[in-house]
Each structure stands twice: as structure tokens, then as C-alpha cells.
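Page 42, continued from yesterday. The earlier attempt failed because a stray header line got pasted into the input along with the sequence. Redoing it now with the clean sequence only.
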Amino acid sequence: MTDHPLVLFMPSGRRGRFPVGTNVLEAARSLGVYVESVCGGRGICGRCQVEVQEGQFAKHGITSAKDHLSPFGPKEERYAALRDLKDGRRLSCSATIAGDLVIDVPQDVAVNAQVVRKESDGRVIARDPAVHMCYVEVEEPDMHKPLGDLDRLKAALSADWGYEALDVDFHLLPGLQKTLRAGEWKVTAAIHKDSEGERARLIALYPGLKNEAYGIACDIGSTTIAMHLSSLLSGRTLASAGTSNPQIRFGEDLMSRVSYVMMNPDGREAMTLAVREALNGLIDRVCAEGGISRADILDAVFVGNPIMHHLFLGIDPTELGGAPFALAVSGAVTLKASEIGLPLNAGSRVYVLPCIAGHVGADAAAATLTEGPHRQDEMMLLVDIGTNAEIVLGNAARTVAASSPTGPAFEGAEISSGQRAAPGAIERVRIDPATLEPRFRVIGIEPWSDEPGFAEAAAGVGITGICGSAIIEVVAELFLAGVLSEDGVIDGTLAARSPRILSNGRTFSYLLHEGAQRITVTQNDIRAIQLAKAALYAGVKLLMDKQGVDHVDRIGLAGAFGTFIDPKYAMVLGLIPDCDLDRVKAVGNAAGTGARMCLLNRGYRREIEDTVRRIEKIETALEPKFQDHFVAAMALPNKVDAFPHLAHVVTLPERRTSSDTGETGGRRRRRSRD
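This time it went through. C-alpha cells are written below.
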């Protein structure tokens, strides 16, 4: 124990050291972590509840335990006696810090919770679901024909629907006779048949005519989870919902979660339980919004990166933590929802898309299905930018895939003023190259910072940090304004010209906002972004080498992060290769769309299974050229590669490095793409 324990708040990722005895609510607010307290810390409202996450968090050097908070105080005892205080919850207005802690601010009490922006893209999908609803009229019992009720039901389904060989879920047998009689021998059977080669199976039975059935499609991301509820008959999306992945409290990035499993005996079980509880909460939400019962859900499709895939299925992901990154199962998985703790209809089935490789998962497979590089002649690059970037490059002739460990910097972690996308986070930045003065836009506030009405709105919402889209823009804008050299070093000589350039000993930082929360961009922040973007770009270049191309025709930016970053700034940063900006687009939650395609049409399941078998997997760790590409990609936008398309849109600074002494370097080298 130290006199100033380290406290990490999740899911924001904010952390700091505080003297022993510091009130948790005060600590949270000093870091800009929003914890509501309507009663002003009197212990009456209960809105300031928090939870301590116990275990060893190696990445942060924290061993967190519940006894690292002060014992229950009078305010908490009074509140618990009068109202329901869930087991493990504490009132942050009462509890004080006694040791290192990882503290979770529960989403059910958070008001300014992370903005989860993953909606269905609304595309029309041809329907051929794995579940069909079949209405039949069954012959009534006859003493002269001693067939059982189930046998006569099968005969009717064979005669009317052509199901010659039909298996039946056992859970239907005890209530089958009551159902037949309740419907006066007219019933609707739900038949599951995923592929032409398998036997059909009766999974649900309803009295009378049941002319609706539903399914869910879900993308389990390492940061957020998005779910869509669709009609299996009409294909219409009834409801969509999203939430933060509660596994964040076990580790911000994927390797941290694998490490948690390795260091904590019950780590895998805890993370599996956490994600399944979150899924059950989302199911409740989409059912309420869609006006249906859980029992109406007959099919479900899930996608996720390999570690999310394994933890969701209850598989230990330890083998994915090191070479050769072996998957427990790479092919598609089909099972009953009840086998993985999802209480839907008793006969509901689950289909999980195949994984491409050890760190290129079912989510990348689903995005590939959505965008279809394997269906076109053009060379398309598909990138899902997250804590682990998944990269697919190809066309109808050949498709290759790889992953690259970008880490959580793009999502606000490892950035001094970084945070996840939530009200109060800066999301857009522009810097005047003449004055070096910034203007910015904040989530939850419509005007820009230099427009009327901003100050009044900011007083209510607050300005608390920088989210991922703004991190990319501010670094790119600093480069375009001449504040950053090509190798990412802040020019300290500009401090004489602008008070925005601050000295921090041997390095400098840029002051983006001065307020209740001082928001700066430090040299370490820029280095973290350089490392992340270089890892991604190097992975892309390896795939381009494998394809024998020096340019790409189209670029798709997938995932929630890809949706909200500006392609121009991503290219200025050198996150993606040069391309006609009109042919660079955000493809939204392409993984969720791919999951919905597989939900509504089983033909897409066969297509992606076949495509994944043909995709060539490239392991970046084994490629000798990765390091060369990585080093070149540390520069802005790149030390070696030219960006002629980008140069037509923005004026790129003259090439100079931190070693330059005032004279300008030569102009950026240009070379033909021909």
C-alpha cells in the first residue's frame, strides 16, 4: 500500500493517484468521470453507486480488492436499510480510498454513459431464414388408426410442407397434446433447417395460426455490443440497442483480458458471465421496444473478434494470447440458445459465424460478407479499427486478411485527456494554421466552440476530454498547421508565437481547452497515436505486398469508430493508404449487418463459410517486412509512401523532421501510381 493509491475508473478508463481517505465521488469528479449525485452527497438518492472489481490487473499494475475501500459508513447503512443496495455496490459519496482500486460505474446508474452508436443500416435482405413457420391442420385421433399425436403432426407436415424426415426437440413432447387440442388440431410449427444437407427439426409449436417469428443479430465488440431484432418473415428490423461491453472492467484491450484470464482462476467464468448478462439486458430492451416476448425469438446470430467469440461461448482464450494463436474452433458454430444461458424460446437456435484466423474473427467475416470484396473486380481494403485492427484486402480473384495490434489509443485510452465517446467529449477539431487557435465540437452540444450558444450549452454538459475521432483530427490538424514535424514532434519554437504551445520540461504539448478540465495534447499522446496508426498501416502494407499492388481502389472503414472518423484526417495521419477520397467510406456496423444477413438468409451462411475457407491468412508477427513498414509508417503520413490523391485535397506541409533547424526541407516526394 502507498500513501497515494492508484484508482482506475471504468468504463471511462480515467485513472489517477489520490491520498488515502479521499472520497471516491470527489476522486471521480477530479478526473472528469461523471458520477451522478442528485442529493449532493447526503447518501439519500443512491445515484452515485459504484462497484469495486477485484483481481490483478497487470496492465495497470493494480491489485484491486473490496477492502481497499473504507468499511460501510453510516450513510450507506442507512440507505441499505431504507432501499435496495445491490450486493457489491457502494455509495461513492460515502466510501473513501484505502488502496489501489479498479472501480466500475454501473451503466444502470450512469446518466452520461458512453454513446453506443451502432444502428441497423436498413438494407433490404432477401429472405430465406433457417426457421420457417408452417401452419397445418392435423387429423384428429381415431380409435381405428392408433397413431400418436406427434406421428399425425409429422404426417401433416410431410403432406403439406414436404418434411419427410423430421426430428423433434424433446422439450415439446410434454405439452404437445395440450397445444394440439388448444388449437383444435390447427397449429403452427416452427421448423429449423440450416442447410439442405441436414434434417429438419421441429423446435416450437403454437396453437392456431402464428404468422410471426423473430430473430436477433448481434455484434459483440470488445468495447461495445450492438443488437438488432428482426422479423424472420418480413425481414423488417423492429428494434436496435447497444451497450458498453462490461468486460472493459477486466481489461481495456483484448490482450489485457487474456492476461486477466491467465492471472485469475475464475477470470474466464467472470467475463463469460458479464457478457451474457449484458446480452440478456439487450434482449430485454429490444423485446420491449419491439413489443414482443422473449419466447417469440426463435433464431439468433452472433459475431465477434476471436477473443470475444471464445468468451461468449465459454471457451478459455488463453491460447490466443501467444503464438501460434490457436483457435479452439474456427468454423461456424450452431447450438441451442439455452446451452449458453440465453433464455429465449426453449427451442431457439444460435449460429456463430466462422473466424478467419487467430486474431481475425467472426466480426471481420461478417463485415467481409456485407461489403463483398470477394464479389468484385476492384481491389478493396476493409478495415475495422479497434483495439485490434482487422484488415481484409482483396477482390474476386484473391482475398487476404491479417490483424494488427493497434491497442486502445484510438478509443481514448493511453491518451492523457482521452475518453470514450460520451456527452462532454470533444469529437471534432479544427486548428487555424495562422494563429494556432482551435475550435471544436463536443458530443451533446450542437454549436462549435466559436459559435453562439456554445458556452451556455457547455456549462450544462461540460467539456471532459477527447474521444477517438477527435484524437485523429487534432493530431492531423497539428501536422497540417505546422505544429508537428513529419516524425510527430511538437515544434517548441512556436511557444513564442502562441500560448497554446506549452513547455513540459524536455517536451511540449498543445493546449486544446482551458476550463474546469484542462485538455492538452502531449508529446506522449502523439507518440501513442503514431504507434497505433503505424501498426495498422504496416499490416495494410503487408497485405498489399502479398497482393502485388501499390494502391487500392476502394477503402471501407468498419465499426463504430470507423463510422465517425473523417477519412481525410485518417489519410493525413497515415492511418490508411492513399486513395481517391470519394472512394473511401464508412461502412457503419458492417459486422452487425453481416450478422443480420445470416439471420435472414441461410444462403449467406454458406457463402461466408466458403469465403472464409478461401481467404489467405497472413500472420504479421512472422513477416520480416513488417518492421520496415512500421518504421516508415511512424512518420506523418508516411516516410516512404506518397499520397497524391490526398495532396489534391489538402496542402501537405513541406517535409521536415525534428532535427531540422529552421530551414525548410524539400517538398514531399511524389511518385506515380502507374
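Notes: The CA atoms of residues 246 and 274 lie 6 Å apart.
Reminder to self: strip header lines before submitting.
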